[in-house]
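User: Show me a protein chain along with its predicted structure.
Assistant: Here is one chain, sequence first, then structure tokens.
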Amino acid sequence: MRAEGQGSIRLRSTLMWFALVLPIVVLSPTSYALAQEPGESAPVAEVAADSNKALPPPKEWYEEPTKNLFTLGLGLAIFPSLGNTEFGTTTATANRPGHVSSAGFALETAYHRHIARWERGDLYLGGEFGAFFFGNQGSGDTTQSSTSPTTGDLDARVWHAGPSIKFMMGQGRFKYFLGAGGGYYQLDLSESVNIPPPTCTSIAPCFETKRSVNKSAMGGYVSLGVDLAAFRTESGLEWRLRLEDKIHLVNFGSLDSFAPGAGNLSGPINVIQIGVVAGF
């Protein structure tokens, strides 16, 4: 009986160890196979590879179109027809006809806003205002009873205002553009006399307008220019330098009311200017 009891205990111990070892033997290869499954390890490798990929470099600030452009330009205005017109004798030049210089000073300001972008460039729409100043061509003196002369001058001013468009091209710091616009033009033409002391008793110069005329007309212009992107501030304000050539076409009609026989005065007016552009 004792031998049978000991055999039974040994059998139960063997079965118990077998029951414990069997799951370990069965599960160990499965776990190892799962750990080595290629389908499970691929995402980890892909994530690591993606993290090592170089991101595309950001675009330079001057390559993106600027929404708003404000321009202030100074330059030279050339009005050949004005310089070739004879305006009759003046107070100071009674022996010869008076002339206005064909070359003058130009001042223009403009605002444009970006409205569309195409593969070849960007379109801007806005408006502008400009003024051209032309002085007397040669001055003349009329000797008075005193030793001081009386100086007579002819001068002209042209004002214009209206809408305009610009089409800008280029990807680097240089932006080339074509422009066009139109609107209202006004001509102010006058003859004034500057009377110096002792005839003039005022501290400021004394002027007397002898004759004047105002003419208005509708006109337009075309232009060609280039912008150079200079720098951008921390606040995001972009600064450019601009060189532009404009040709204004306008017909002011007859000036016979100012000087009989003067005839019609018409363009072109060529304006070459250098400007500063603020973009934001």
